Amino acid sequence: MPDLHTSGPLFGMAAGLEARLKAFFPPSHFGFGIVPAGLTPAMWARLTQRTPWVGLGFRGVKPDAASGRILKGKAEWTVFVVVKNAHSPRARLLGDAMGPAQLGMIQVAALCLHAHELRDIGHVEVVGIANLQAEGWKDEAAEIAALSITVNLSLTDPRELPDFLRLAVQWQFEPPPSEGPADTIEAGI
């Protein structure tokens, strides 16, 4: 059984999706980032400082209704594409000498991902494409689009979890956890 803290199907998906995107959006020409769930406007601005930019975010897992003992379902991911071009909305959408087209990046991302096989995991399915607006992010020269993708997921039989308990894993938590809350509450009168 794999060490579920550092490997398994979700890790394989993340690595496979990132590799596929970087093959078609090479780091020499495109920024790339992992998009966290708790995203602030300041964090978004830092992530997308270098454009054109491609990002990958994990949304969750939607279990199949009849998955039974083995958790099966669809892992849901979002691929973000960001272009910046101060010339005009037309230049952002259709591209010009200053930068690629938002539509072109969307098409390349969709075609490179849809039906792509992630080895030993399954096929990627593009299930939606949309323009986005980042609330609180005020860059009028930017356009954001998101591709919603899914990958079939099958997790290990839970009867194998005792194997998980025998794993030799150590983490360093710094600083050490503080003591819990006091048992008594003093009223400030």
How is this fold's topology laid out?
Layout: H1 9-24, E1 31-34, H2 41-47, E2 53-63, E3 72-84, H3 89-94, H4 102-113, E4 117-118, E5 122-132, E6 142-154, H5 161-165
Parallel strand pairs: 1-2
Antiparallel strand pairs: 2-3, 3-6, 4-5, 5-6
Please provide a written account of the structure.
This protein has about 190 residues and is an alpha+beta fold. It has a single domain (about 10-165), classed as STM4215-like. Helix content is about 25%, strand content about 30%. It is built from five helices and six strands. It has helices spanning about 10-25, 40-45, 90-95, 100-115, 160-165; strands spanning about 30-35, 55-65, 70-85, 115-120, 120-130, 140-155. The protein has a six-stranded mixed β-sheet with strand order 1-2-3-6-5-4. Helix 1 packs across helix 4 (about 100-115). It is globular. The termini are far apart.
Highlighted features:
globular, 189 residues, alpha+beta, STM4215-like, 5 helices, single chain
In short:
The chain has helices at 9-24, 41-47, 89-94, 102-113, 161-165, and strands at residues 31-34, 53-63, 72-84, 117-118, 122-132, 142-154.
